[in-house]
User: Fold this.
Amino acid sequence: MKIEQLMSRTVRTCRATDTLNHAAQLMWENDCGCVPVVDEDERAVGMITDRDVCMAAYTQGRPLDALLVASAMARDLRSCHATDTIVEAESIMRAAQVRRLPVVDPEGRLIGLLSVNDIAREAERGRGTRRKPAVAGEELAMTLAAIGTPRERREVDTAA
Assistant:
């Protein structure tokens, strides 16, 4: 199965120059835990999560409307293409320990978002049917385990 069959096509985005308050508002109003960060050409350049917003406020000690998305977004962006397979996407998720992947066109412009939840819902749809499931439960379990494996704790300088 290809990513284009599972991905969300309606994705809210923000810019690195937006405030964290704006990013949090997008997440609240759209019931999502992350927002891709795009440049002026709609190319994906980062990702900001609700956790990133909270930790930035905590570590920087400033209100959300005084902090920019650029100060908290993940810049080491992993993405996939609409024509990639679920197996390929899960491999990227495992290696990067991420729950969501921006789906980009060949020029890097955002065209959708794939989450581990999208994959899990597809695995559930295939259960109890005679058709060969597009997502194997064992593969999904391996992906979730890899994503959830604790990373080494990073020390944060809160004195700055």
